[in-house]
Structures are given as C-alpha cells and as structure tokens.
Amino acid sequence: MRAYDIILKKRNGYELTEEEINFFINGIMDGSIQDYQASALLMAIYFNGLTDKETSQLTMAMVNSGEILDLSSIDGIKVDKHSTGGVGDKISLIVIPLVASVGVPVAKISGRGLGHTGGTIDKLESIPGFRTDLDTETFIDNVNKFKMAIAGQTHNLTPADKKLYSLRDVTATVDSIPLIASSIMSKKIASGADCIVLDVKVGSGAFMKKLDEAILLAETMVNIGKRLGKKTIAIVSDMNQPLGYEIGNANEVREAIEVLKGKGAEDETYIALTIASYMAVLGGAFNDFDTAFEYMKRAIETGEGIKYLRKLITIQGGNPNVIDDPSILPQAKNKIEIKSDKDGYINSINAEKIGTAAMLLGAGRTKKDETIDHGAGITLTKKVGDRVKKGDTLSILHTNRTKWDDAINIVKDAFIINKNEIEPLKYIYKIIE
User: Fold this and answer.
1) Mean confidence (pLDDT) of the chain
2) Which one of 74, 106, 156, 227 is CB 3.0 to 4.6 Å from 56, fit for a cystine?
3) What's the confidence (pLDDT) of residue 395?
4) Which of 308, 323, 338 is at the close of a domain?
5) How many domains does the chain have?
6) Does any domain span residue 66?
7) What's the rounded Cα separation, in Å, for the pair 127 and 374?
8) In a domain, 112, yes or no
9) C-alpha to C-alpha distances, 195 to 21, 228, 232, 284, 341, nearest whole angstrom
10) Residues noted as catalytic
11) 403 belongs to a structural domain
C-alpha cells in the first residue's frame, strides 16, 4: 500500500477503505507519510468529501492514534457535551451541575479558548483555587462520588487530529464538514463518555456562518456517533449575537451563577435547560424531553442547581464563596462605557466583533501560549430587538490594559441600530436526534 495510491484514489472521487485510512493515519504518526502527502489528501477530501462510512473510520483512526479514557469504572451512563464555540458561551458551567443534580454522571473534558471564542477551562480557572489539571484517577473518583468532574484535555488524546489540524490550518482546508466533524467527534469519543450532546453554533460569532452548513455539520456528527455506538444529539443554536450579557472569563462565571439562581438572561437559560434536559434523557434519568425540561427548571427554582455548582467548585479546589460573593472573582480596574449615538432599535450585534474586542482587552488569546486576563471582558446592556435612545449605554468594556481604542471602535461597529423594530432572534433552530 502506498500513500500515492490513496491520494490518487480520493482525488478521483472514490471511497477509501478502512485499511487505507488507517494506513494513512498511522503513517502520519510514525513519519513514514510526509506533510506534503498528508496535505494533498486533505485537499482531495476538501474537494471530493467523505462518505459517512469514511468519516466514521477517519474519526476512529484518530481516536486510536492516542490515549482513550477508560471510564468503565464510573457507575451509570456517562454523558458529555460539546460546543462548536461562540461568544459568551458559558453553557457548560450551567449544565454540568444541573445534570449531576439528577444523578447522571457528567465526565467533562474541555479546552482553552483561542481567538474570539472563549474556553470553559479558562473560565473556571478564574475562580480562585479551581483546579482543572485532574489526573485520571481523581477525575473518575469525583464523577463516582459527586456525579461530575471537569478537566482539561491531555496531550495524549487524538494526537493525529492535532497533526492534521495544524496542516489544515495552513493549507486552506479547515472548513471541510467531514474534517471538522471527525476532528470534534474524535476528541469526544476518546474522552470516554457513553452519550454526547452537541451544541452547534451558527451565526456571526460561530465557525459556521450559514444555517444549512451548521445543520449539515450537526447531522454529520450525529451520524458518526450512531455509527460508532455513541448516542448523540445535536442542537443547532444561535450565535448571531453573544450569548447572555457577559463576555470574558470571570464575567461569564458571574453570569452562570446568576442563571443557576434563576436570574439569568433568557437566551442562555433556555439553551442551557434544553441541553441539560437532553443530557439527562440520554443518561437515563428521564424518559422524555418535556419531563426533563420541567424538572431542570425546578432544579433552578429550588436552588438544587446552584448547590451542585458550589459542590463542583469545592471538590476541585476552588473557593465556593464566589457563589454568594462574586466580587471575589477577578475584576478589571478600567471600565469604558460605549453609548448609542442615535435613537432606534438594535437590529444586530456582530458576535465575532464583540469576541475580537474582548480578546484585545485581554480576555482571549491570539496564540496558544498567551496569558489571559481573567478580569477582562465586555458586558452588554442591550440585546437584539431592544429599543435604545441616544446616550444609552450599549456595553461596558473591562480591561487592565492602557490602550483600548481599537476595542472601542470594533464594539461600536458591532452594533447596528435602525429605526425599524425587529423580532428577537431565535434561540434554537433545529434538534437532530
């Protein structure tokens, strides 16, 4: 078997066999297949696509390239969730305690933020003392005892995916649906959960800008899950404006606390309840979504959800007093208000621009090894559909940096205000089971 023949076969639009896919991935890992050959295959896949069978086989080949977490010693059906990334997306901080509160084990592996999207690990690490560097034994023990744990990704999970992604990034092959789907699902499957709920974001602040592409990605990942024996549900949710009102690490922790106290923004509360409910159904706690949704709402009303967040913070070394006194969280010393220059209705808030501005204020990274400022971020005071008057505050920038002119200009450009009133944005576009 030769790399040349595999590249030629896919270039000509034929389906690759499992043996050919495994040969190629193994060759990438042991160095027998060169980067230029791997790049050629990626471009052939970009133009000719992969069948569902090929995509699933590529996923498993990447899973098998490294460590696979063995969670078999955890009692019950283990559930995980994944978001394709957005701005202000603090959903994991809300759903982990909610799902654990109904007895479903949540074994969550999360990543750090890069670019305009935030990472769950960075957000949690803004809580003083909170540890995400759990070893496997502690991770499993916490899930067995408390029904929840969250840890950062290890270097040994899906190393083939990391190699392929670095090549995709420099060969203009990132935006290939089968390559995106196999990349995401390989990490989720290697993380060891039995069931997965996917939150596929679509809109200005998401990787997928068009609804039809987001739905195709969601369907592709659900098909991978089914083929590989993982119960998988995908939710296609809106990211045409930031989720909730807070962007930035400590800011988003504060807002997640507010949601679990029943005081959160409507959009993020509804999406969190939806995702938590599907996780609980997959985990066997409920027979149907509607029953689960009503129970999750009550878990917020009765304080059960916030109790479990306090427990999660405590067992992972964080200061649980942040629940009652969020001022303990990092705060930026400089606050700059952005005001409306006219009367009207907010027609749109470009989420990517808001995320980029937050990154420039210190809340995000432009490189993987960059240090972030947990206190930096942006607070929105208005959402799409809201009426504003000239001089009203649209948002507040939080930063410890001394230069913020670029961020101000980007945030101003993000808000489109017109005389015409518009309907609020939909929160969820489609559920794929």
Assistant:
1) 95
2) 227
3) 98
4) 323
5) 3
6) no
7) 9
8) yes
9) 25, 11, 6, 10, 48
10) 82, 161, 168, 183, 187
11) yes
For the cut 80, the answer to whether the pLDDT of residue 119 exceeds it is yes
Q: Are residues 304 and 341 in the same domain?
A: no
Tens of pLDDT, residue by residue over 272-309, are 999 999 999 999 999 999 999 999 999 999 999 999 99
Name the CA dihedral angle for 402, 406, 411, 416, rounded to a multiple of 10 degrees.
Answer: 150
Residue-level length of the chain: 433
Query: Which tokens hold the place of 167?
Result: 């090549």
CA atoms lying within 13 Å on the CB side of residue 110: 30
Distance, CA of 101 to CA of 98 (rounded, Å): 5
Residue-wise pLDDT for 362-392, tens only, equals: 998 877 778 899 999 999 999 999 999 999 9
Calpha distance 78→108 (Å, rounded): 9
Confirm whether 138 is domain-assigned.
Answer: yes
Q: Which residues contact 370 (CB under 8 A, 6 or more apart)?
A: none
Q: Which of 305, 323, 341 is the last residue of a domain?
A: 323
Region 162-171 average pLDDT? 91
Residue 116: pLDDT band with limits 50, 70, 90: low
Same domain flag for 136 and 267: yes
Q: Which of 137, 123, 133 is nearest to 94 (CA)?
A: 123
pLDDT of 18-29, one tens digit each? Answer: 999 999 999 999
Asked if 393 contacts 381 with a C-beta cutoff of 8 angstroms, the reply is yes
Longest dimension (CA), the chain: 69
Whether residues 281 and 355 fall in one domain: no
Residue 404 belongs to domain spanning: 330-418
Provide the angle, in degrees to the nearest 10, between the axes of the packed helices 266-282 and 91-100: 40
Percent share of the chain, pLDDT over 70: 99
User: Tokens standing for 327?
Assistant: 């001022």
Q: Which amino acid is at 356?
A: T
Q: What pLDDT does 80 receive?
A: 95
pTM beyond 0.90:
yes
- Give phi and psi for 416, each to the nearest 5: -110, 115
| Claim to verify: residue 360 and residue 315 sit in the same structural domain | no
